[in-house]
Amino acid sequence: MKGGASMVKLSDFGPGAKFPDIALPDHTGKMVHISEIAGGRDPLAIFFFRGWY
Prior knowledge:
By secondary structure, the protein is low in regular secondary structure. It has one helix and two strands. The protein has a two-stranded antiparallel sheet with strand order 1-2.
């Protein structure tokens, strides 16, 4: 991962676990952390999909 970010491991996920504060690019390419979007105020849903079937 770029910028010295640490890799998220599968073991970091599980029922009741806090979701890691990962950063993803926005529509302009700027890296945005999940905490910047949600800020702990509102619920946030993240969907993962593997692509086209």
